[in-house]
Amino acid sequence: MTRNAMKARGAPCLRSVDRQRAIQLEARFADVFGGADKVPAELLTPAAHFRRIPRTGQVSTLVIVESDDGMADLIKARPS
After folding, report:
1. Which end of the chain, C or N, has fewer beta carbons within 10 A?
2. Chain segment 31-76, per-residue pLDDT in tens
3. Is 70 helix (H, G, I), strand (E, B) or coil?
4. What CA–CA distance (Å, rounded) separates 60 from 77?
5. How many other CB atoms are found less than 10 A from the CB of residue 39?
C-alpha cells in the first residue's frame, strides 16, 4: 500500500524502514526519435545553461522504500 493510499484510509505512515531500492530511468532522445539526427534541436538545448552541455536524454530515479511490516512507498526523484 502506498503512502497516499494509507493517508486516504487514515492509516499511519511508514515507521521503520526495512529495505530501499533505487531504480534509474533513462530515455535517450536518439532512441525515442529513431536516430540522433532526428532529435528536435529544442530538446538538445532547452535552456541557455544547456548551450555548453550536450543533452542527450532525460533521466530520473525512483526509490522504493519498504517497512518491516510490508508497507511500501514510491518516491520519484526530480529529473535531471
Report:
1. C
2. 999 999 999 988 887 777 767 777 888 888 888 888 888 788 888 7
3. coil
4. 6
5. 19
Residue with cell 532525460: 58
> 1 pLDDT exceeds 60?
no
The answer to whether the CB of 52 falls within 8 A of the CB of 62 is: no
User: Which grid coordinates are listed for 8?
Assistant: 486516504
For residue 35, the cross-strand partners are none
CA dihedral of 41, 44, 46, 52, whole degrees rounded to 10:
-120
Q: From 23, 22, 2, 26, select the one nearest 14 (Cα to Cα).
A: 2
**DSSP 8-state symbol, 2:** -
